[in-house]
Structure formats: structure tokens, C-alpha cells
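Q: Could you fold this chain for me?
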Amino acid sequence: MRKYIFAFLCIAILSYTTGFAQTETDPKNSSLVFSIGYNSGSLKNLVFAPVSRYDYNGLVYQLKYASTSKKENLFEIQLDYLNSELKSDLIPVLNANYSKIVLNFSYLKQVYNKNKLAIHVGLQSQTNVSSYINWKAYDFQQKLGVAGRLTFQADEKQTLSSKLTLPFLMWRTSTFEENFYSLKSYQSLLWSTEYKYKLSNHFDFNVNYNFNYDRLQISNAYRELQHQINLGINFKF
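A: Sure. Below is the predicted structure, expressed as C-alpha cells.
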């Protein structure tokens, strides 16, 4: 069922972004990436279970759309889906199913472009929806942060890029609580780096690494750390 939901979301985003590209942007400056990767993470959520740390790992599916305007500004959408199991050696009876959907929207304005190096800065919105024990419990998080991307064009075929996002506001509603957090009690960092190799005028091969960290300094402590590596194909249109 989860795979059907993910497929539906992928088709919906593809339909929207294709229409957007045809009406608002030059088709040559749009791209769609589908990738599959491996995610390794750890989670501490004391309001869910009195476990100091859960560990989890599994396959992650990623769909990403990017469009560059005539002024070289970037519009990006990224959708990730993970289905795994929270595991703890301390209290194995509390092991639980865990799935997560992450949706990012970002708009970055080009502020520098010289000597094969381009720099973009802007804002990013991120939505996290986590499910515990097959939706018997849930955690919805809406985040807003500042983002920056550095892109280096090594040659005609190879491109390196790195993006750093620092969320500074989060609204959280869940089975456990509903609250609004700012930097005083909420710290987060999202970092990704990507290598792209041009296969043809319409296709690139992609390798990317993602690092995510979230921390809530509250009585029912919440922390999550994720490492993720993906391989994918980039279709340019």
C-alpha cells in the first residue's frame, strides 16, 4: 500500500512539474531525477518510547524536480520515502515499524557566477510525516529555513554541487503533542552533496549524499540523525 501511495505522489508531482515547465520555464532548463538509495539513521523520541536511541536502516526512494529560470534562479522539489523498523537492543519488545515521507520546496536566487562556480541562496520549506506502528501514531513537522547551494562545473560532463539548509522554525503536531519551536529550543541541519556525470543531452548519472540532523531541547527529548546515499538518473527536458 505504501508503495502505491509513493507512486501516486510521484505521478502527481511529475504531472505538475511537467505542466509548470511547459508554461513557465525553458524546457532545456528543467530536470527530473529518480533515485534509489540506502538510509542509515538513529532516533530518540522519549514521548513515543522510553528508549535512549533507536537505530534503523533501509532503502529510500527519491524523486526530485529542478528548474532554472532565465535569470538562473533555481526552483527545486524533492520527495523522499523510507520504510524501515526502529530497533533497540535495550528493550527489543518496543521495536516498531517506522516509515517517513519528506517533501522539500526551495527557491534559490543566483548571487554569484564566475570561473565555473555558481552560488545560490534562498529559502526552503520542508514537510516531514512520520508513521509509527503502521500509523497507530504519527508525527507531522513543518519547517522553514535558509538555504545555499554551491555548484562547480568541472568540465563539460562533470558537475559537483553542495547544498546546506539551516531550518530556524518548526511547527509540530502529532499523536504526542502540538507546538511551535524556534531556534531557542530547536536546532537542525540539512546537507547534501551531488556528483553528476553527463551521459547525453537528455540524461545524467547522479550520485548524492544527504545528512540530516534534528534536535528538540524539551523534556520529552527528540533527536534524529540520518545518513543517506543515492544513485539515480537525471532526465533533462
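A (continued): The chain has a mean pLDDT of 90.
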